[in-house]
Amino acid sequence: MPNGRFETNIFINCPFDDEYAPILQAVLFCVIYMGFNPRLSTERADSAENRLSKIVTLIQESKYSIHDLSRCQAEVVGEHFRLNMPFELGIDYGCREFLAGDHADKKILILETERYRYQAAISDLSGCDIKMHSDDPQKAIRQVRNWLVSEAGIAANGASDIYGKYTADFQEWHYEKQLANGFSEEDIQDYPTAELLSEMKLWMQEGNPL
Predict the structure, then answer these.
(1) Does 3 fall in a domain?
(2) Strand partners, 109
């Protein structure tokens, strides 16, 4: 059975490399700013915990899911496709189709960089409403914002306003706070996403301070 936060949990299935970090961090901010709770497979670091079981649990505990397939392609000759993201999408789709109760009403957003590129690897997704972000954090925020307004039935500020809150208000607050706490410029640039997520939640709890 889903836990008490099922209605506000959003499972986020995406890469965790440095190149993708700006998109992930923008999406996390948008999710939190709109009153939802992001769930990531990296939120717990227990080496004894089976990763796949953890992912299944996160999916079952989340009414909403965001799956970014933009990093599935092989980048060099001889490299394999990165299949973790589409595999987790399949688990999520199966959860919605085969489990009863609240799970039957799960909502899924699929993101990509370029339109139709995913069809080369996953032709079964043809006809699905895939949204494009063009590797642009602001566009990613727009897609997530519009999807949540549509599927969760909530009101929200425009995507440009949310992006401004993220890039100006939150980032300035976070930057000044970390400098005051003894962080160097390099430390701040390399700040772990999990800790940044906690800072975003704190910023919201404190009323969006500047």
Answers:
(1) no
(2) 66
Contacts of the segment 162-170: beta carbons below 8 A, 24+ positions apart? 162/29, 162/30, 162/33, 162/34, 163/26, 163/137, 163/138, 165/29, 165/33, 165/208, 166/26, 166/29, 166/30, 166/33, 166/141, 169/208, 169/210, 170/29, 170/200, 170/203, 170/208
pLDDT given for residue 127 in this prediction: 52
The whole-number pLDDT of residue 57 equals: 94
Total-model pTM: 0.88
In a domain? residue 147: yes
Residue pointed to by tokens 């727009």: 142
Whether 6 contacts 61, CB under 8 Å: yes
Residue 207 token pair:
């009323």
Q: Can you list the residues of the chain whose pLDDT is less than 50? A: 1-3, 74, 76-77, 79-80
The CATH number assigned to the domain holding 54 equals 3.40.50.10140
Residue 199 lies in a domain: no
pLDDT of residue 108: 95
Q: Whole domain around residue 86: which residue ranges?
A: 9-156
Any domain includes 204: no
The count of structural domains within the chain is: 1
What are the structure tokens assigned to 100, written together? Answer: 């009863």
Token pair of 2, please? 């889903």
**CB-based contacts of 204, cutoff 8 Å, min separation 6:** 32, 33
Q: In the prediction, which pLDDT does 13 show?
A: 95
